[in-house]
Write a structure and sequence with these properties.
This protein has nine helices and six strands; from the N terminus they run E-H-E-E-H-E-H-H-H-H-E-H-E-H-H. Helix 2 links the parallel strand 3 and strand 4.
């Protein structure tokens, strides 16, 4: 069985994937990455969320034989207006550099994207977020933000490895992106997780684990 490499999103640590990894550990050994940009070794199956998923998608397109399969959670193949998004990311990065991590985390957690998460769930993630350095977060945003990474929709038909795309059913934007990506990938499959928003692995870990197990057992 292949090892699974769980890659977190922006401003997360490995604990963001711990519950799902525990559900699969008896069958699939797992490596939990501490940063979205931590390199994923060849031969494993990357399971990347948001920024982490975007990074491994671009790596898979650059090295199609590097991994036997790929799982992307809450990921899009690119935004319609990268220049506008890049300007927004730069504005946020510059703000992050000027503020202490406590204020950075407070602003990040106030985003509408977290509205589907309970207060307890948001609070549980806070220690991981507070462990980051603002300068490092700003650097990651400039390198791997959606404005910094070019759209790759036109390259998806050439990526032949099995790809599972997951989005929370309440996250309309990424449901649409996941369905579109699955239609373009030769071996793409999309799954919407009920009663979950942008981070289904946190909001509905059991349902995500079931989807991962089914995909891995059948396709890897």
């Amino acid at each position: 069985m292949p090892t699974l490499a769980f890659v977190p999103g922006f401003m997360q640590r490995c604990g963001a994937w711990a519950t799902v990894a525990d559900r699969l550990a008896q069958r699939y050994p797992s490596a939990l990455h501490e940063r979205a940009d931590e390199p994923v070794q060849p031969g494993v199956v990357p399971i990347g969320y948001s920024m982490g998923g975007r990074i491994v998608l671009h790596r898979a397109l650059a090295e199609p034989q590097r991994w036997p399969a790929l799982v992307l959670v809450g990921v899009s193949a690119g935004v319609d207006d990268p220049a506008a998004r890049r300007a927004g990311d730069e504005e946020l990065a510059a703000w992050i550099e000027r503020h202490p991590i406590e204020e950075v985390v407070e602003r990040w957690e106030a985003q509408p994207v977290f509205a589907t998460q309970s207060k307890e769930l948001v609070d549980a993630q806070r220690p991981g977020r507070l462990s980051h350095e603002p300068a490092e977060l700003a650097e990651m945003l400039r390198k791997f933000g959606q404005g910094a990474m070019p759209p790759v929709w036109d390259r998806l038909p050439g990526l032949e490895l099995p790809v599972l795309l997951i989005a929370g059913a309440l996250d309309d934007r990424y449901v649409a992106a996941g369905e579109r990506m699955a239609s373009l990938l030769p071996n793409g499959t999309f799954s919407a997780i009920p009663d979950a928003g942008h981070a289904p692995q946190l909001e509905q870990p059991d349902a995500v684990a079931v989807e991962l197990r089914a995909f891995l057992d059948e396709r890897v």
